[in-house]
Amino acid sequence: MAKESGLAITTLTIDDSAGAGQDLRNDITSFNLSTPRALQDVTGIDKSAMERLTLLADGQLGLTGVFNDVATKSHVVFKNFDTLAASQVGRTVAINISGQTLNMEMLFNDYALARGADGSLNWTTTGNLSDGTKPTWS
Prior knowledge:
By secondary structure, the protein is mainly beta. It has two helices and ten strands. Strand 9 (112-115) and strand 10 form a beta hairpin.
């Protein structure tokens, strides 16, 4: 596999409240994705270096974007996050980078709008793994 830039993300879809995946790539200006594993320190007093066990997997997706209230775009997808979080309904997130795909069920816990001094209107949100399925790239 060759080194590549992040210039051409081919898929970044998130379900709307009806469960239909919406392509939000045009609204998203940056994202950060992590799929960490919890670690347990099991170092005994007989050791001079750390000893750990791998525990549960997790997933987080931080998004930043530009306000867009067209029917299938970011504002419509995220505006009802509080209702969804209360009912624990996850959103399917699909990301494809260079043929590598990651699907996760996520809860989004905030949809924050910010108006800049220059007049820009941007949003941020964070999704967290919600269904207990380990994030796996395919």
